[in-house]
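Note to self: keep these together.
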Amino acid sequence: MVSKHCVVLTSTPGRPRFRPSREHPLARFFPSGEHTLPNIASAKKNMRKSRAATVRNRAQRSALRTAVKKAKAAGATPEDRLLAVQLLDRAARKNLIHRNAAGRQKSKLAKAS
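Structure:
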């Protein structure tokens, strides 16, 4: 079934190809505009899961970068540095950033103190 948010590009028997419109929730994931939406239930679920993880990861990465930036600032308090180190450890543990990158940033923060 064709969604009201999609425009059919080509229609081949059994598998139409869609171009999500700008209002479509998946539009930002397919900037070229060409994508075949999944038919299999597990693939649909995986798409939902990856979309939710992307949103969650983006928020956590943003909070991490903000905390590190505050910790590197000239008037940073020990609490700011502690928060940045905790967020770096958590991000490395959850594979949000590489563990060596987290260690490198923690080392820089410790040297700057």
